[in-house]
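The methods section describes the discrete structure representation at length, but only in general terms. Each protein is reduced to its one-letter sequence and a matching series of backbone shape codes. I believe one specimen quoted in the main text would settle the matter. An entry of this sort, consisting of the sequence and the corresponding backbone structure tokens, reads as follows.
***
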Amino acid sequence: MKKIIFAFFILIILFSFTGCKLDLSKKTFSNKNEEIKKELVELIKKEYEYTVKVEITGKTIGVYFPVDNLLEDSKAEEKKINKDVAEKIDRIIFLVHRVVLSSDNNLEFYTVVTVDMKSGEQLLITGYFYDVIRARLENISRGEFSQRLLKGLDKNDKMIGDWDGKNFKIDEIFLPNFLVNQIVQRIRVATFKEKDIPEENNFFSLFFKDKKPEEKFEAKDVKWGLENKIFTFVLEIPDYQVENAREIFGCILNSTVDTLYSYDFDYNAVRIFVGNKDETKKIFFINKKDLELFRKKKIKIENLINE
């Protein structure tokens, strides 16, 4: 997994929680997609003089933010986000929250895509407006809000030099996909080995700022699927050992059941495949009832797995 390190923390929650609480009962922006797009572009330009492009697909709004210095060094193994760019992303996300939550539109998800015009490297941050509202109402903690944001860095050569965002398109995001990707992200973060966190300001410090994982394994690859209300996870763990099964599946189940419960998502069971790239070593199938008992600490991990 590519290591991503911020030169400092992207404190999205700083803008969302300090001195900027919105009155959600007041609707000051349009509920029409085209007008929301125009209003957001104009507001970002007016308040910060940033040039962005906004697209809406279904219930998802996407913001395209082209820059010429996303990373401190795009060739380095450890990708460090430029501090100035990170601060700009914070401001854009805050204005996305402000405009959408102050309108009568039924948008559910947002994605901010920041692209380096020279290298094609792009940082994607995706959130759920339901989480933003719960955070503003202090129904969830700042730490939990951070864990719910999806974050990723990849490369798209088609975007090199595309300052106008002519190639920018977004796909609609649906809750099941968002939840599964959140679970996968939590598993990957939780299974980072300590050697992979060389300094405090690791990208994933947005999740565990003061905590370094103690797991003795690492998920090199995580695939997923959802069919007939059954979640399936396939994890590649090169150093999987039978004696670590309790630890491994405890981590996976905690990440899964905590996420699904927090969104009150309707599902029937979870199926887990674990192995290396050549073979599957363990398969587990756990129904929702047993997972709920596990979450409430009324059943132990040993009762769910056959070591």
The radius of gyration is 20 Å. The chain is about 30% helix and 25% strand. The first strand starts at residue 4 and ends at 6.
